[in-house]
């Protein structure tokens, strides 16, 4: 009996050691991906991407609600998350220690994974008499959460028209609150920087006619000359059921990673997305473009992303 017990014990030990050493016994690498508010494109798209990448790569990617680009970079820096959505302009602020990050100083413990789509500066109103940015003078306008990326975008656009924060009656609200305030007539307009269509504006359009205020060519050129991270863009009339297309500017929506995320993990993340774009069930997937994804020039790319783009014959920083 003792011999039998001893043999069984050895067999069990061997099986246990084999299990520990096998690939099947390893847990997939877990990554938390901070996105944006639950009424914005970051969260909707980030949730879809997280589920998709997890199903394709063996990674365990979890999307969580975020508080905007600045907070996302701060969470990334603190190690609370491993991946983050961020506006390309805010990414540059953080890396260079300017604007939002002037007090904190330059941050260099993150790198670029890929640029995914353009985020339009959408100036939303339900007042048809507000036709240009100049018409915002004296009006009550939501310019984003104080100190957010949206705030600085609003200041930039107002500045191109010779206006400052003091020339409007500013309120500082997120996308969802801005939409509710527009619906209730508490504000006249709101700056929302997000990929169109944006849920908050789409929902608002069900309660009445919405308009996006256009920016004319002259002021766009002046804005880009001063702040070259903007590009000319437009939102088609049918996106929100508007009378006409709206011309505006946009920044890039970029995924960032902590530098200490493994090269393999980031490689799997990028390759899962760009090898299977037609399978991703979100409208923004139609904008996936490998050349745009690799187009960021002022911030280094993560080694995992460098490896993937190199395989496609693209050299990145």
Structure overview:
- The protein has helices at residues 2-21, 41-57, 69-78, 88-96, 149-160, 175-183, 199-205, 217-226, 263-274, 290-293, 303-311; strands at residues 30-34, 60-64, 83-87, 110-125, 140-142, 169-171, 189-194, 211-212, 231-235, 246-258.
- Strands 1, 2, 3, 4, 5, 6, 7, 8, 9 and 10 form a 10-stranded mixed sheet that branches.
- The termini are far apart.
- It has 11 helices and 10 strands.
- The chain is of the alpha/beta class and 317 residues long.
- Strand 1, helix 2 (41-57) and strand 2 form a beta-alpha-beta unit.
- It is 38% helix and 20% strand.
- The protein is globular.
- Helix 2 (41-57) crosses helix 9.
- Residues 1-24 have low confidence and may be disordered.
Structural class: alpha/beta
Number of strands: 10
**Unreliable segments of 5+ consecutive residues:** 1-24
Q: What's the oligomerization state? A: single chain
Give the H and E element order: HEHEHEHEEHEHEHEHEEHHH
Enumerate how many helices there are, as a single number. 11
Largest sheet, if any? Answer: 10 strands, mixed
How helical, in percent, are the residues?
25-40%
Percentage of residues in DSSP E strands: 15-25%
Distance between the first and last residues' Cα:
68 Å
Label the overall shape.
globular
Mean pLDDT: 90
If you compute it from the alpha carbons, what radius of gyration comes out, rounded to the nearest whole angstrom?
Answer: 23 Å
